[in-house]
Write a structure and sequence with these properties.
Blueprint (H helix, E strand, L loop, with lengths): L4 H21 L1 H25 L2 H25 L2 H7 L3 E8 L4 E4 L4 E14 L2 E13 L11 E9 L9 E4 L3 E4 L3 H17 L4 H12 L7 H9 L10 H17 L5 H18 L3 H16 L4 H19 L7 H15 L1 H8 L5 H25 L1 E3 L2 H28 L1 H27 L4 E3 L4 H22 L2 H16 L12 E5 L8 E6 L2 E5 L5 H10 L4 E7 L4 H4 L2 H5 L3 E7 L6 H14 L3 E3 L5 E4 L2 E7 L13 H5 L3 E6 L2 E5 L5 H10 L7 E3 L10 H6 L4 E4 L12 H8 L4 E4 H4 L2 E6 L2 E6 L1
Parallel strand pairs: 4-6, 12-13, 13-14, 14-15, 19-20, 20-21, 21-22
Antiparallel strand pairs: 1-3, 1-5, 2-3, 3-4, 5-6, 5-7, 8-9, 10-11, 10-23, 11-12, 16-17, 17-18, 18-19, 23-24
Helix pairs in contact: 1-2, 1-3, 1-11, 2-3, 5-6, 5-15, 5-16, 6-15, 6-16, 7-16, 8-9, 8-10, 8-15, 9-10, 10-11, 10-12, 11-12, 12-14, 13-14, 13-17, 14-15, 14-17, 15-16
Pfam families: Competence (PF03772), Lactamase_B (PF00753)
GO molecular function, one term: hydrolase activity
Keywords: Cell membrane, Hydrolase, Membrane, Transmembrane, Transmembrane helix
């Protein structure tokens, strides 16, 4: 029987850490929570004392204690001279110690280096304060060269921080070094650099993944590979996690055993290994969290490991929340705890059931990733709106390569400190291992049903939690018999390999469909039964023809080619195939010539004459009202059509249908977007067709002001352009916009449902 007392106390600590900052902030919510906490402490504590229920009393005290600690922590960060100066946007000079590595962020007009720092002294408004409080720093390229642990002096302007974990945001000038980092930070930097050097001669993705596995250093990892890891549930490999620590410290313990270390000496090696790993991977909250979860994993390997690890998990949660209450709202912390709990609670019964008819090593290889993934599924769905169907399979396939890649990567760094060629040998073998991991991620992300959409409302998530709980309860009964166990695995495999059917396609109430035509655009705006306005034709006639057939489109009263690049016009024959086309609008810029010729030949064969889209015109076609917003009537009709010139001449349409407003932007560039921002101030829409396949070159500030509920990006899988850019996707998601992309979601339909936007994918 599992002893769950400490895990229950850990859950109580979590509840208190969530409530404390709300109570400290005051307001109506704070008052309500304060009353509830008082009731819990008073009623629950009194009952526990009378009934001599030590565990209940401890739980009540834990909730109250962590609430107080979290409230004080929030107040300390929020109420101090730095926060006061930030509220007044004061110009200051600070002396601070840099506490995180640089991260490049792209603003609207410049690129910045983001660092976190601990302020020691601040001078502002004629007063000098000496204190300790965290701030976020945005600086120029000079900040990228400041080593971690360095104390610097810099001038800048303070502003409010978006995070409750920092007192202010400092937009800083060039830093001046006051004191260099300590010996431990210098040693850590040298080893991290040696790990990178040991694999630098290998292909870029492999060279970037090895340091990520060893110490969480994912600089240089391509956006498309990171997306593939996210789709296949392998993102945990790119960040510092308990797995990293378990593998690294486990390797050190094996070496210590070979060297004759026994008894308490092994504990000493383990403790030193944990400390060394934290220094190597940086003492950020995520690393400390990973170290705690890794230590729990090591406990699980000892005698009576499951019981000890469960108690250790509860103790780790309590300790971490008392040290840093802000972890209570950290997604990484939540996923780490859930994954560890899933492995400890679900893993053993699943393993024992599978062990009845397969080898133990195989049973553990299946049970561990499956248990961790199931425990994390509701939280992942709440964050991403997706449920991965290949995560268990992908984790199972990569598991044999993770340990040797991690250990060999670390060994390559250590040997490289002695002799570079020796380190490169170990590093090369490590990259051979990660090559398999990359292949699995790429293959899994390309599967038709790699992930499915899941609503993020309370009811949908409650249903998902219930489904996961049922699976956890029923799995041992299903897996203990070879027939049902194999059948279940085959069903899961079939679901991943075959695209799930989309019942009732096209969906009732559809307004707009973005066709999956690879790297290109093709959209259909419903105007009535069997009728639609088609905007762009993609690069392949067969793909756009198939999409329109699936929508049962026979009549096209209007076709629009936003500009003449191949990825928008080359599939135009598929639009005309077997359909009646009324009018044909194009960009005013009749360039590049190849695209103009392709359209002219197809239109001529169909007896349709292309005409420039009439700027400012509004027309109603069936259910849709369409307005031409761009290009202007005085724009060029001839010129260099390659690249940005043709893109910026794209036809931009505002469509209104069934109470929804849709902005279809072609490939318009930031210059054109900026002009539209001036012309259409205050424009509010429901659906945005993201310009230029989600390229990084956007007027992101304007796109965010549109407040679209849904953004659609038509993009080819693993295209050579890096579309869509992570900065564009995240920039839109930060405003609450749900981003859909054809390379992951397939064909995307926007549906009007009760006056609201809904999305169906196929």
């Amino acid at each position: 029987m599992n002893d769950l007392r400490l895990p229950i106390l850990g859950a109580g600590a979590w509840a208190g850490a969530l409530a404390g900052p709300v109570v400290a902030a005051g307001g109506r919510a704070g008052l309500v929570l304060m009353v509830l906490l008082a009731a819990v402490v008073g009623i629950g504590g009194g009952w526990a004392v009378r009934k001599r229920r030590a565990t209940v009393l401890a739980l009540v005290l834990m909730i109250a204690g962590t609430a107080v600690v979290a409230g004080l922590h929030a107040a300390r960060v929020r109420d101090n001279p730095v926060a006061d100066l930030a509220a007044r946007k004061a110009q200051v000079r600070v002396v601070a110690t840099v506490t995180t590595d640089p991260k490049e962020v792209r603003g609207e007009h410049a690129t910045y280096q983001l660092r976190r720092a601990s302020v020691r002294e601040i001078r502002g408004r004629g007063v000098v304060y000496r204190l300790r409080t965290p701030v976020v720093v945005l600086g120029d390229e000079a900040w990228a060269d400041v080593p971690l642990g360095t104390t610097v002096s810099a001038a800048g302007r303070l502003g409010r921080s978006d995070s409750h974990e920092e007192s202010a945001l400092l937009v800083a000038d060039e830093p001046r070094v006051v004191a260099g980092p300590g010996i431990w930070w210098r040693a850590s930097d040298r080893l991290r650099a040696s790990i990178r050097d040991a694999v630098a001669h290998r292909p870029p993705d492999q060279a970037a993944l090895v340091p990520a596995l060893v110490d969480g250093d994912d600089t240089g990892l391509s956006d498309d590979l990171a997306d593939d890891f996210r789709t296949t549930g392998l993102t945990h490999l790119l960040a510092v996690s308990g797995t990293n620590l378990t593998l690294v410290v486990g390797f050190l313990l094996i070496v210590a055993r070979w060297s004759g270390v026994r008894g308490r000496g092994l504990y000493a090696v383990g403790v030193l290994g944990i400390i060394g790993f934290v220094v190597l991977a940086r003492t950020e909250p995520s690393v400390v969290r990973a170290a705690a979860m890794g230590a729990v994993g090591l406990l699980a390997m000892t005698n009576n490991g499951r019981q000890r690890a469960l108690r250790g998990l509860g103790a780790a949660v309590i300790g971490l929340l008392l040290i840093d209450p802000g972890l209570a709202t950290s997604v990484g912390f939540t996923l780490s705890v859930l994954a560890t709990a899933g492995i400890l609670l679900f893993g053993p019964p699943w393993r024992d059931a599978l062990r009845r008819w397969m080898p133990q090593w195989c049973a553990e290889a299946i049970a561990v990733p499956a248990a961790a993934q199931l425990a994390c599924t509701p939280v992942v769905a709440a964050i991403s709106g997706q449920v991965s169907l290949v995560a268990v399979l992908a984790n199972l396939l990569v598991e044999p390569a993770v340990a040797p890649a991690t250990v060999l990567g670390l060994l390559g760094g250590l040997l490289g400190l002695v002799w570079d060629p020796l380190g490169m040998v170990a590093g090369t073998v490590a990259t051979w291992c990660v090559a398999w991991i990359i292949a699995v991620a790429r293959f899994g992300a390309d599967l038709p049903s790699a992930q499915v959409g899941w609503a993020t409302g309370p009811l949908a998530l409650a249903v998902l939690v219930a489904v996961c709980a049922a699976i956890a309860f029923l799995a041992p009964r299903v897996l203990r018999h070879p027939v049902t166990g194999v059948a279940g695995c085959l069903v899961l495999l079939a679901v991943a390999l075959v695209r799930l059917p989309s019942p009732g396609w096209p969906p009732a109430g559809w307004v707009l469909v973005m066709c999956d035509v690879g790297q290109g655009d093709a959209l259909a705006v419903r105007t009535g039964p069997g009728s639609a306005v088609v905007v762009d034709a993609g690069p392949d006639p067969d793909l756009v023809d198939d999409c329109l057939d699936g929508l049962e489109i026979q009549h096209i009263p209007l076709a629009v080619i936003t500009h003449f690049h191949a990825d928008h016009v080359n599939g135009v024959e598929g639009v005309f195939a077997g359909r009646q086309v009324g009018e044909l609008w194009t960009s005013r810029l009749q360039d590049p010539p190849d695209g103009v010729q392709i359209l002219g030949e197809a239109a001529g064969a169909a007896g349709v004459v292309p005409v420039p889209a009439p700027y400012g015109a509004t027309t109603t076609i069936g259910e849709a009202r369409i307005q031409v917003l761009w290009p202007t009537a005085d724009s060029d009709t001839r010129g260099p059509g390659d690249g940005s010139t043709a893109n910026d001449a794209s036809v931009v349409l505002l469509v209104e249908s069934r109470g929804l407003r849709l902005l279809l932007t072609g490939d318009i560039e930031p210059e054109g977007q900026d002009q539209l921002a001036d012309d259409l101030a205050g424009l509010d829409i429901d659906v945005l067709k993201v310009p230029h396949h989600g390229s990084r070159y956007q007027d992101l500030g304007w796109l965010r002001t549109l407040q679209a509920q849904v953004a659609l990006t038509s993009v080819g899988a693993r295209n050579d352009y890096g579309h869509p850019a992570t900065a564009t996707v995240k920039g839109l998601e930060e405003t609450g916009t749900e981003v859909y992309r054809t390379d992951r979601d397939g064909t995307v339909a926007v549906v009007e449902s009760g006056g609201e936007v809904a999305v169906v994918t196929r």
